[in-house]
Amino acid sequence: MTHSELQTDAKLKVGDVIIKLNLIEKTVKQILSRYISSPHTEFVNDVLLNNMITNLSVKIKLLRHILVEEGHPMDKKLQNSLQVILNKRNVLAHSESLLDTWDDLIDVDFDYERDAPPSMYGIFETQEPDIPIYENDSVNYEKLSKVISDFEKHYKLCEEGLLEIERKLFA
Question: Are 100 and 64 in contact (CB under 8 A)?
Fold first, then answer.
């Protein structure tokens, strides 16, 4: 894959991650709004639960509290998956590695011509970027494809977990 193709593919995948996290946030918001069930639904949706006012982490905390109150504590796997997709989205949204060049020097070659000094040039190969992940006071690196794969796996678990919550709360 060429450098340009890799960057285009990465942009599409990062965009997909951001859209999918927004879908999860929309689902959490809908659950909260339905649970609150107020004559002031417009205020609840457009102000109280507005994504610019109340971030997804706060909405998840509210949902966890509601579930405890209703006798259905949030499954630990769902809590973990929600945290993973938040972290992976943030890593991608704020990664400078996606802006860097993806060409790695893999070799150096020399051309020799009679009566001329040798000329040197690098041989480059387009590589998938390493994304820095800050965890436990250290920085580790993961390939973009692994970050996306982990996000996708946990996104599916979140979708399933949120559907189960809706069944429990509104059945």
Answer: no
> What would the two tokens of residue 7 be?
């960057």
Q: What is the pTM of this model?
A: 0.80
Tokens of residue 69, six digits: 């109150």
SS (H, E, C) 102-138: CEEEEEEEEECCCCCCCEEEEEEEECCCEEEEEECCE
Distances (CA, A) of 29 to 35, 63, 106, 110, 122: 10, 9, 49, 61, 53
pLDDT in tens, 17-56: 999 999 999 999 999 999 998 888 899 989 999 989 999 9
Asked if residues 102 and 129 have their Cβ atoms less than 8 Å apart, the reply is yes
Is residue 72 within 8 A of residue 169, CB to CB? The reply is yes
DSSP 61: H
